[in-house]
């Protein structure tokens, strides 16, 4: 059965070229201030904000429109503590137990990161994104999902953008391995942890590494160069 179609409901069709350029510049300038934050305030964040961030992520394109993602949002202090304990156990092994090659550790040194992850308890919300390797019908029949990593990666990028747009901060956290999250959060076999996002307000007078992004000439080639 074919999918029904409808007109594209998009205001951009009515923007003037000048408005399009202005909007592009303003959005880029706004996103230039987005930074990963590791020091959070314990100030509460309304559940509705998390809901809208996840709904925005859910607008991402996906292979064959399978939408192969699932989000678990946690604000229960006891569960957050369990996640921190399990994550730090894996991170300690990565940093000090030989999982990370010396080159990787050297690359992380300027950022000052280590296996201690207090933000997993301090941040008011932890949002865990799972990728669905395959779908499951109500009768238990498996459904093939397509371009899973690409689709879920786009959804995560849109989640980060939505969080920044609301004035909150986050961090992409990927403790390796992450299998403990599926067990701890009681997710089914077809789901694998993809990324963990602490979400909240930044701590008072928080500082972030003074790093620079690549300029346009370093990241794009026009036509055949």
Describe the structure.
The chain is an alpha+beta fold and 225 residues long. It has eight helices and six strands; from the N terminus they run ααβαααβββαβαβα. The chain has a four-stranded antiparallel sheet. A two-stranded antiparallel ribbon has the order 3-4. A hairpin with a 5-residue loop joins strand 3 (134-136) and strand 4. The protein is globular and about 55 Å long. The model has no long low-confidence stretch (mean pLDDT 92).
Task: Detail the topology: elements first, then pairings.
Elements: H1 17-31, H2 47-57, E1 69-74, H3 77-96, H4 102-108, H5 119-122, E2 125-132, E3 134-136, E4 142-144, H6 148-165, E5 169-170, H7 179-184, E6 191-200, H8 216-219
Antiparallel strand pairs: 1-2, 2-6, 3-4, 5-6
Report the β-strand fraction as a percent range. Answer: 5-15%
- Unreliable stretches (pLDDT < 50, length at least 5) are none
Please bin the fraction of helical residues: 25-40%
Envelope shape: globular
Radius of gyration: 20 Å
Order of helices and strands: HHEHHHEEEHEHEH
Strand order of the largest sheet: 1-2-6-5
What is the tally of helical segments? 8
Task: Profile the largest sheet.
Answer: 4 strands, antiparallel
Derived structural class: alpha+beta
- Number of DSSP E strands: 6
Distance between the termini: 44 Å
**Averaging pLDDT over every residue, what do you get?**
92
Keywords:
225 residues, 4-stranded antiparallel sheet, globular, alpha+beta, single chain, two-stranded antiparallel sheet
Task: Please outline what is shown here.
The chain has eight helices and six strands.
């Amino acid at each position: 059965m074919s999918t029904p179609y409808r007109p594209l409901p998009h205001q951009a069709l009515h923007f003037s070229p000048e408005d399009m350029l202005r909007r592009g510049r303003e959005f880029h300038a706004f996103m230039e201030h987005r930074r990963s934050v590791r020091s959070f305030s314990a100030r509460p964040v309304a559940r509705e904000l998390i809901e809208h961030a996840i709904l925005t992520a859910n607008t991402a394109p996906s292979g064959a429109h399978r939408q192969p993602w699932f989000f678990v949002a946690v604000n229960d202090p006891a569960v957050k503590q369990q996640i921190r304990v399990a994550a730090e156990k894996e991170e300690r092994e990565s940093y000090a137990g030989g999982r990370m090659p010396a080159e990787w550790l050297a690359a992380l040194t300027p950022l000052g990161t280590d296996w201690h992850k207090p933000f997993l308890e301090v941040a008011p919300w932890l949002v865990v994104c799972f990728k669905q390797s395959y779908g499951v019908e109500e009768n238990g029949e498996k459904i093939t999902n397509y371009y899973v990593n690409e689709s879920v990666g786009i959804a995560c990028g849109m989640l980060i953008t939505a969080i920044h747009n609301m004035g909150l901060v986050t961090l992409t956290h990927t403790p390796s391995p992450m299998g403990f999250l599926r067990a701890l959060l009681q997710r089914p076999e077809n789901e694998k942890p993809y990324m963990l996002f602490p979400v909240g307000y930044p701590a008072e007078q928080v500082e972030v590494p003074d790093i620079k992004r690549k300029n346009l000439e370093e990241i794009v080639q026009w036509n055949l160069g």
